[in-house]
Amino acid sequence: MLELRHKLKQEAQTTSAPIDRIVEISYSDMITTQTITDSIVKFPTLKTLKNTVSKQRRQTRPPLPKSIQDLPAQLPILHTLTKNNSNFLLFNGSLGGKRGLIFASIDDIKYLAYQKFWYAVGTFYTSPSIFYQIYSIHAFDEGLSTPCVYALLADKSEETYYDLFSTLIKKIIEISNMIKLEYITIDFEVAVKNVFYKHYPHIQVKGCLFHYGKALFRNFTKLNLKTPFQEDESLRNWFRSFAAIALLPETDMEEASQYLRTTKPLLYERQIDSFLEYHDRTYGIQSSFPPKMYNHYRNLNPRTINYLEGRHNKWNKRAIKPHNDIYACIDMFKDEQLLVADERQRHEAGAPPPKRRRNTRIAEESLNRLWDKLQKNQISKETFLKGAGLRYFQYLKIE
């Protein structure tokens, strides 16, 4: 019984798991391992245990905040440290004029300082209800993508993103005396793009190619082209070739665009013209997302943020419920930080990077062969676009 009480107290004070869950699982384990059934009647009731555990939790943790204003100025010490008791709370203050929190260990920051390729995106399902989003920043290094920074943001304004990245970059330089960042890939969020274009113009901002393709496809099929896309191979080839312009050398993109405009399937001329007007407004030279942002010619690193969203989906599955409390969210960050530290340690010790899916590997190998042939003038741009569109943008289809 003493062992049970000690276990319950420890879990109540060191985790954010619901009290009901902590008590019921521990109680069930105790009953199934109890050999003397007569002694079970002497155990406290579940209700008594839950009340006791609730009191123990209140001793080490303030009441759950119902708004950002209710969040203590100083977080409980337990939620400022990693599971290895290293500093984890990197920043606690104003981001865009509102309360924000940034979590990263010193090792995470040192690792991030050396990475040329960053990937960043927000997620909402696991964000605490008192914040607008979790914004995570990941690094890519020789086949391994891992999260390094977890930020809780009150909104998605340009001011908030500027404060986030300026704070982070200052911290990196302060800790590591250097930063090697050259590229950051995002999900076409204007506010994030503006921060780098205005304040860090030497850093190239790339848009996720998967999001780009999906956005084109969504607009294209809205123009009463769903059924024709399914049934007309020439229309499918034209559209996928148009999407594949992003994989040509940037200097060839405009010429290829003009060529495809003159070879569009005339049966759908009116709808395609509407699609092209949308593309020019959204992704044209004078638009918010100019061609250099979504050009991925010879980019051998991840061209999408799909990995980040996959990681976020894992967080969603681990979460007990959407928009859990702030302390449960920080516990999730701490769990993730520990797992990631192990991944990096294995990677640095020479372990092979995670295996890519067979279809992904085949698509990448095909794209590299097409790039080689294009560079050697062994194929025309038109042939390249058809091949790259068919192979790389095959995911653009009617479900």
Textual characterization of the structure:
- This protein is α/β, with parallel strands linked by helices and 399 residues long.
- It has three domains: 59 residues, no CATH class; 184 residues, Nucleotidyltransferase, domain 5, CATH 3.30.420; 127 residues, no CATH class.
- The protein has 16 helices and seven strands.
- The chain has a seven-stranded mixed β-sheet, with helices on both faces.
- Helix 1 packs across helix 3, helix 2 packs across helix 3 and helix 4 packs across helix 5.
- 33% of the residues are buried.
- The mean pLDDT is 90.
Q: Main traits of this protein?
A:
alpha/beta, 3 domains, MULE transposase domain-containing protein, 399 residues, 7 strands, MULE_transposase_dom, Nucleotidyltransferase, domain 5, elongated, seven-stranded mixed beta sheet
Write the layout of secondary structure elements.
Blueprint: H1 2-14, H2 19-33, H3 46-60, E1 89-95, E2 98-103, H4 106-113, E3 117-123, E4 133-141, E5 144-153, H5 158-176, E6 183-186, H6 190-199, E7 204-207, H7 209-222, H8 226-231, H9 233-243, H10 253-262, H11 269-283, H12 291-294, H13 306-318, H14 326-348, H15 358-375, H16 381-392
Parallel strand pairs: 3-6, 6-7
Antiparallel strand pairs: 1-2, 2-5, 3-4, 4-5
Organism: Rotaria magnacalcarata
Protein name: MULE transposase domain-containing protein
Domain MULE transposase: 122-212
